[in-house]
Amino acid sequence: MASEGRSGRGSVFFNFGTAYALRLLVSIYSLRKFYDGPITVFLAPDEYSDALRQDILKVGADVAMMDQLSSTCDRYRVFTESPFEATLSFDSDIIFQGGIDALWEPLERDGVLVTRFFAPLHGVDGTAASPGFAGRMPLLENIRDLVDRPTYDRAVRRMVDRIDINIGTLGISRPRGDAFLADWTKHMERGRNRSIPILDEMLVVALVGGYPHYLADESWNCPANEYFRRTNLADASVIHYFADAHSLFGQRMGRNPATWAGRLWYACYFEAAAAHDLKQWRVLDRSFDWKAEPLLANGPVMAAKNTLRNAERAVRRVRKRLLGQNGS
After folding, report:
1. Kind of pairing, strands 164-173 and 86-90?
2. Using one digit for the tens of pLDDT, what is the confidence trace for 54-69?
3. Among residues 291, 261, 277, 224, which one has the least CA distance to residue 22?
4. What gap in Å lies between CA 143 and CA 204, rounded to an integer?
5. How many helices (H) and strands (E) does the chain have?
6. Which of 2, 3, 251, 256 has its CA 20 to 30 A from that of 234?
7. Where are the beta strands (DSSP E) in the chain?
8. Which domains are delineated in the chain?
9. Strands 9-15 and 251-252
10. Taking a C-beta distance cutoff of 8 angstroms, is the pair 204, 149 a contact?
11. pLDDT band of 108, cuts 50, 70, 90
12. Torsion angle (degrees, nearest 10) of CA 320, 325, 327, 328
């Protein structure tokens, strides 16, 4: 894993199929409001990839083609094939509410950057005897025989201590992070044909404790759904809309326009759609909610509201820093 041909810092996304294409374009659009560095999107060739490539270029990112991409088993490849020495990878189902500059220094210092996750240990309203929705311990159990016993036991202890990880935001810096990347790659290939849910994430959870790494605050990968977070969404720099369209206690998760988080995503979408033609990808997005509030479709109005909100958040951050300094 030599570093020849790599340089500098950059962000990457990867996309498989068309279901996430709209979310990918909206995510890049939102990132470009705060970040002017290089962005590369990894695509696998299919009947839509040529058209998607053109629209990715229009929203300000480059494209690299891969021979194959899967939702879980090939995630490590965005780092082994990244053109950057320091790479931040983002899932397509996120939007950005602030810049990412603060992440580069700890990433380059420690070699690996992961983000804190506060999902319920045994799932929503679950117990050890009766796991609930999205239980983390059962997911970790699935990789028990892929890793050695000390590694697995350490991961269990960390999870019980509420040190869990979601890889919607994940960073690796070369060459400092090479040892972790090589280990992750080896274990991913070992489990490739096993049909293990979120294999990539569970292996990061298990392996990262054995390597230097920076555990970033939840605000850099904050779940949209209240069951999985502790951070106020107004203070989050990155909002993650995983489990989109799943239902929990009768309420849609992810991009639910009945929630503040959902309205925020649709506002960002309509703003992006005012600048770019996204109709093709909207039709192919099977969980897009066509009943989203019509008022949100006013892109210029939403752009003005977003500007005011971002200014308010900046003032709040400065105030917190000043209060912290005064109290020290």
Report:
1. antiparallel
2. 999 999 999 999 887 7
3. 277
4. 11
5. 11, 12
6. 251
7. 9-15, 39-43, 62-65, 86-90, 94-96, 112-117, 164-173, 214-216, 222-223, 238-240, 247-248, 251-252
8. 9-257 (3.90.550.10)
9. unpaired
10. no
11. very high
12. 140
Which amino acid type is present at position 280?
A: Q
C-alpha 260/C-alpha 96 separation (Å) is 15
Torsional sign, CA 156, 104, 63, 77? negative
| Residues contacting residue 258 through CB under 8 Å, at least 6 positions apart | 251, 252
What span, in angstroms and rounded, lies between the C-alpha atoms of 50 and 88?
Answer: 25
**Residue 42: both structure tokens together:** 């990894």
Tokens for 261, please give them. 């988080």
CB 287 within 8 A of CB 245: yes
Q: How far apart are CA 74 and CA 58, in angstroms?
A: 26
pLDDT single digits (tens) 298-313: 555 555 555 555 555 5
C-alpha–C-alpha distance, residues 240 and 253, integer Å: 11
Q: What SS3 state is found at 242?
A: coil
Length of the chain (residues): 328
pLDDT of residue 298: 55
Nearest alpha-carbon partner for 177 in 109, 112, 115: 112
Angle at 184 between CA 183 and CA 188, to 5 degrees: 120
Cα–Cα distance measured from residue 259 to residue 89, given in angstroms and rounded to the nearest whole number: 27
Question: Smallest Cα–Cα separation from 29: which of 286, 326, 265?
Answer: 265
- Distance from the Cα of residue 150 to its chain's centroid: 28
Q: Identify the three-state secondary structure at position 264.
A: helix
Residue 31 burial by Cβ neighbours in a 10 Å radius (0-12, 13-18, 19+): buried
Mean pLDDT (the chain, rounded): 89
The Cα–Cα gap between 38 and 17 comes to 23
pLDDT at 326 exceeding the cut of 70: no
For residue 45, is the peptide bond before it cis, meaning its omega torsion is within 30 degrees of 0? no
Structure tokens at 156: 């269990």
Give the DSSP per-residue string, 275-322.
HS--HHHHHH-TT--TTS-GGGG-HHHHHHHHHHHHHHHHHHHHHHHH
In the block, which residue shows the tokens 């820093």?
321
